[in-house]
Amino acid sequence: MTALLDRLATLARSPRPALVAEDGACTYEALLARAGGVAGALVDGGLTPGARVALLCEPGVAWVASFLGVMMSGGVAVPLSPLHPEAEIRALSRDAEPSLSLVGASLAARAAWTGAPALAPEALPPRAFEPRVDERELAMMLYTSGTTGRPKGALLTHTNLSTQAGLLADAWEVTRDDRLLHALPLHHLHGISIALLTALWAEATVELAPRFDRRRIWERLSSATVWMAVPTMYHRLFEDLDAQGADERRSRARAAAGLRLATSGSAALPVGLAERWRELTGAVPLERFGMTEIGVGAANPLRGERRPGTVGVPLPTVSLRVVDEQGGDAAPGEPGEIRVRGPSVFAGYFRRGDATAAAFADGWFCTGDTATLDPAGYVKILGRTSVDILKSGGYKLSALEIEEALRQHPAIADVAVVGVEDPRWGERVVAAVVRRPGSEADLSTQALREFAAARLAPYKLPHEARVVDELPRNALGKVQKPALRAALSLPARG
Ligand code: MLC
Ligand code: AMP
Question: How far does residue 267's CA lie from ligand 2's centre (Å)?
Fold first, then answer.
């Protein structure tokens, strides 16, 4: 058995509230019976250990029961997002080749997009199910954008998920008395593993918001003890706060100050935003650094000194180095690449032995993040090594994937996508396009967003499109993105 499933098995009779969501509320006992129903149905449906199961549900009890059910069945959960357009679900499903899919009743019309026989989790009768799963087996595959046009499936084992949940529950002292307000998307590590599984590990209650709705989050914060967010959410919360009258601002400040813990991750938290949260609540958010492939690597302490502008110190069980260009450990304060080793590091990319091999050096996972380590061991992230990886609102985006989608436009001869620093999104996605001679099509930002929306999730669409005469290229024909930024009078990144 696995540590996480073992722990959940001990909660199979727990009357404590596990979830409060749009599609209902349930105790641990009810949640695990529903998860058992899903696991049993998958096994009855012929699922073999290690086979992939696509998961397409709105956030809610059905999503969580489905996810846990796949884990219990020995299958590999492949969470897809209701935000994804048809073309993206079909492309990811072609890559994942799921044996079965679990598609929520409200999304039943999309079941065919997964290319697999679909079960509706709401229709599966609860039952007791005893998992027979080994720690080393795969539990989940998450699609992550990278320096190739197509997202890659990152494979996470039960050990990865158990280690992470246990580590974070310990580090953040999460207990059954906590109530986590959860508004993160459920197709990425932050929402699934860092937030949801950590809370379930500790038998805490999770309030799953159907989406990030600023007003509703402010309303619900007063009954939560823990809030986990990406920096853009903090920015959006302040935008909404600033629009309120004095009384409402005071009452919201009281709600936020009542939280035991507010964390930030997935992108850099601007120091000014951290300080505003401190003014409001008395403490800066606990900032931590993570990645789909490694889980949370470093975190500021719950009780010790939180240093704004840093992501804290490596978590126990995480070995973290900052490696200079010569491949040795960088001196304190000197920049280098963050490399990580330990039980939370993933098992590799699905059917991409080449990419997996390229991601490791001597057994260390190479994050592509540039950072310094100070003498006290605090990690400060300076930026990323690749210009083609952007972070907008906490989502990792591949410039190449967005370029590929725009290149399908008949009036676009050439295109390059760059990230530009932005107070709300962290980075804004700007596309420079070259018009095909003779074409008169509308290449405005709105027109290109509408065009690309059929191919890409809404958060991948360019915030801005600029028509240029040509793209600056070097002698090898590679677009010079720093020069392009300068030509567009966009500030340099980092
Ligand atoms: C929404 N939009 C975005 C966007 N999010 N555009 C660019 N980047 C984004 N991140 C678009 C919408 O489609 C919409 O377009 C317009 O912006 C306004 O949408 P909204 O719904 O009002 O935005 P909002 O709800 O405020 O969304 C912001 C957000 C969301 C922060 C809630 O982006 C989000 O959930 N981000 C979390 C990403 C995440 O979980 N990353 C974790 C990766 S794991 P239009 O055209 O309709 O106007 C990881 C490891 C780790 O990184 O360490 O955690
Ligand atoms: P993802 O691939 O979506 O899991 O995103 C992981 C990436 O997010 C990391 O490689 C970092 O670039 C970035 N990231 C996560 N947390 C932080 C943070 N606290 N500060 C800066 N960057 C972060």
Answer: 5
Decide which of 3.50.50.60, 3.30.390.30, 3.40.50.1820, 3.40.50.12780 is the CATH code for 205-384: 3.40.50.12780
Distance separating alpha carbons of residues 120 and 38, to the nearest angstrom:
9
Which of 144, 289, 315 to mutate for ligand 2's pocket (most ligand atoms within 8 Å of CB)?
A: 289
Cβ(381) – ligand 2 distance below 6 Å: yes
The CATH label, of 1.20.120.790, 3.30.470.20, 3.30.300.30, 3.90.180.10, for the domain at 389-488 is: 3.30.300.30
Contact 20/196 with Cβ under 8 angstroms?
no
Å from CA of 268 to ligand 2 middle = 7
pTM of the model: 0.97
What are the tens digits of pLDDT across the range 192-223?
999 999 999 999 999 999 999 999 999 999 99
Q: What is the pLDDT of residue 492?
A: 58
- Residue 147: pLDDT band with limits 50, 70, 90: confident
- Of all protein residues, whose CA lies closest to atom 6 belonging to ligand 2? 291
Return the beta strands (E) in 224-318 as ranges. Answer: 226-229, 261-264, 286-291, 295-299, 313-314
Do β-strands 364-373 and 286-291 pair in parallel, antiparallel, or remain unpaired? Answer: unpaired
Provide the residue ranges of all domains of the chain, joining segments of one domain with +. 205-384, 389-488
